[in-house]
């Protein structure tokens, strides 16, 4: 089933050249999608459109088969959560972490159950006393994990995650990747992941789409796209991955 | 002669010790890496070294940057040495950039203050600085406010700001996390070139072992605020002594392997 679709989507920022041109992409339930591409290619812009934070200039965004109109945003927000690229600016500095993580629960009219908040923080590897502290008291990677805890606390169906593990060291990254994989397997979560870490993409996503200068230049099974890339940019991307010498 | 000497540096927040007795030295041309897991004290070490700890945190021990005591010296003296000697690329570019100022002006600011550039020369230097970090669309980027830039573009503006004045010591805190691998490779080459050509000393903070291996030599592995292992990066990767270093190496290999498996299937 198609959960989320971008159909021939185009988008321009005010006064700017097109940031996205004729982008068509489908996120099916149970089939995680990775979006990769060079800095400035339009990945975050596409996520913003899929989240309903901006409207496409041309084309259409559909959720569960129907256009994502303003009237449907409330229903949509129940099913979808996001992790933004700049986690710090998405955490309100005046609130304690406990309140920040509970936000989606309150948004859904659910009780801000401290046990659920604690479970989410624990799942991302943050200690129990985290809930009573403020964002500025945490390191970059800890704040990124707070943002992930907030996104998963209400068991969303879709997670749109913009570089959710980029600030995480490898051991913590393994933990988060395992966590996300288990949420997909056990809680019917489907992820759309923006990541420049192709190793993480390979572990989490069956489908990969490659964006270059606002256009989708290649998409398909991850093993196909990363295994025998047909577009020069994808090849360059693979060749540049830093690896440990044997 | 050493440009930066850190000995027995500790950082506390009330009773809790966040950085615990860290010592290392950096001379011109050195490439020093601080690696370690999330929350191990890497960023706080960088902030303490440049005298930029946020209020509420206190540093003890000794930090000498070009001879100036960065813990005890008066603020005026610390500021005087920081600008021309050391520049820092902060972990979160948005916190380093002024949201109300266009990117071009932010880069021009230190060029004017420290290198005394004005007028056309200043404009050219800003353009060069943007090109250097591969922001080729220089005019548009210079005119943009931070929120009008992508994550990787912001990170590169922050790098351009830090290196435009050719500091003698560059502290870069996870400077390439927001960059895709192709741009990342170019930025790593750029940093590498700075050290080779200008004898810049580099303190590179990262959790990414393969990235570290490309630019740094001497490495200190931090865990819970302490240095648990030090040595040349190649021998740390080949023969990690501390269990934590071993986990780091293993996890790096795991993602390498996932990528190779997928590419083979
Ligand atoms: N608010 C804005 N106003 C004008 N231009 C913008 C705005 N936000 C982004 N852009 C431009 O749109 C293009 C696409 O930006 P986007 O943030 O989608 O890139 P990205 O693929 O997420 O890159 P990165 O990997 O660096 O985060 C960039 O060239 C950027 O400068
Ligand atoms: N202002 C503060 N008040 C209290 N504790 C703090 C403060 N800033 C950081 N800490 C704590 O100090 C420890 C070290 O933080 P630091 O930012 O140096 O970590 P890091 O190694 O840079 O991690 P990361 O890789 O996640 O950025 C963390 O456990 C963090 O929670
Ligand atoms: Mg982005
Ligand atoms: Mg840090």
Automatic annotation (TrEMBL), chain B:
Keyword set, alphabetical order: ATP-binding, Cell membrane, Membrane, Nucleotide-binding, Transport
ABC transporter domain segment(s): 4-249
UniProt xrefs under SUPFAM superfamilies: P-loop containing nucleoside triphosphate hydrolases
Membrane topology annotation: Peripheral membrane protein
Subcellular location: Cell membrane
Keyword Membrane annotated: yes
Domain of life from the UniProt record: Bacteria
Pfam families for this protein: ABC_tran, oligo_HPY
Record CDD domains: ABC_NikE_OppD_transporters
Family: Belongs to the ABC transporter superfamily.
Protein name (record): ABC transporter domain-containing protein
Species of origin: Paractinoplanes deccanensis
């Amino acid at each position: 089933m198609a959960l989320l679709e971008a159909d021939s989507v185009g988008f321009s920022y005010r006064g700017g050249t097109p940031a996205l041109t004729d982008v068509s992409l489908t996120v099916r339930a149970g089939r995680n999608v990775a979006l990769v591409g060079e800095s400035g290619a339009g990945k975050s812009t596409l996520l913003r459109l899929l989240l309903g934070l901006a409207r496409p200039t041309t084309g259409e965004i559909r959720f569960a088969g129907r256009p994502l109109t303003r009237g449907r945003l409330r229903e949509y927000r129940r099913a979808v959560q996001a992790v933004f690229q700049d986690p710090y600016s998405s955490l309100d500095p005046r609130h304690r972490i406990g309140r920040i993580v509970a936000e989606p629960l309150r948004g859904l009219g659910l009780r801000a159950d401290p046990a659920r908040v604690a479970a989410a923080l624990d799942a991302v590897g943050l200690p129990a006393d985290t809930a009573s502290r403020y964002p500025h008291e945490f390191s970059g990677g800890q704040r990124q994990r707070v943002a992930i805890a907030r996104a998963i606390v209400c068991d969303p169906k879709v997670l749109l995650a913009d570089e959710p593990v980029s600030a995480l060291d490898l051991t913590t990254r393994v933990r988060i990747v395992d966590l996300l994989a288990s949420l997909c397997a056990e809680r019917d979560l489907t992820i759309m992941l923006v990541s420049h870490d192709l190793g993480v993409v390979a572990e989490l996503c069956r489908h990969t789409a490659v964006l270059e200068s606002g256009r989708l230049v290649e998409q398909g099974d991850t093993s196909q796209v990363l295994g025998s890339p047909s577009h020069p940019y994808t090849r360059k991307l693979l060749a540049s991955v830093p690896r440990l010498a044997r | 002669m050493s440009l930066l000497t850190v000995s027995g540096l500790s950082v506390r927040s009330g009773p809790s010790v966040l950085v615990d007795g860290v010592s290392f030295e950096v001379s011109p041309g050195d490439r020093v890496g601080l690696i370690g897991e999330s929350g191990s004290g890497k960023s706080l070490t960088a902030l303490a070294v440049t005298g930029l700890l946020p209020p509420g945190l206190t540093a003890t021990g000794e930090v000498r940057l070009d001879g100036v005591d960065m813990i005890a010296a008066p603020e005026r003296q610390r500021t005087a040495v920081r600008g021309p000697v050391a520049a820092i690329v902060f972990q979160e570019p948005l916190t380093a950039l002024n949201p109300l100022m266009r990117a071009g002006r932010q880069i021009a600011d230190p060029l004017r203050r420290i290198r005394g550039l004005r007028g056309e020369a200043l404009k050219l230097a800003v353009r060069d600085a943007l090109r250097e970090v591969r922001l080729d669309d220089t005019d548009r980027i210079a005119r943009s406010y931070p929120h009008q830039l992508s994550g990787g573009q912001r990170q590169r503006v922050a790098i351009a700001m830090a290196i435009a004045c050719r500091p003698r010591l560059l502290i870069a805190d996870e400077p390439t996390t927001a960059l895709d691998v192709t741009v990342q490779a170019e930025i790593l080459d750029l940093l590498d070139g700075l050290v080779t050509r200008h004898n810049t000393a580099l303190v590179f903070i990262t959790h990414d072992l393969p990235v570290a291996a490309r630019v740094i030599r001497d490495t200190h592995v931090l865990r819970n605020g302490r240095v648990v292992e030090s040595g040349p990066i190649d021998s740390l990767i080949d023969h990690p002594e501390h269990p934590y270093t071993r986990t780091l190496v293993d996890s790096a290999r795991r993602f390498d392997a996932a990528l190779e498996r997928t590419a083979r299937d």
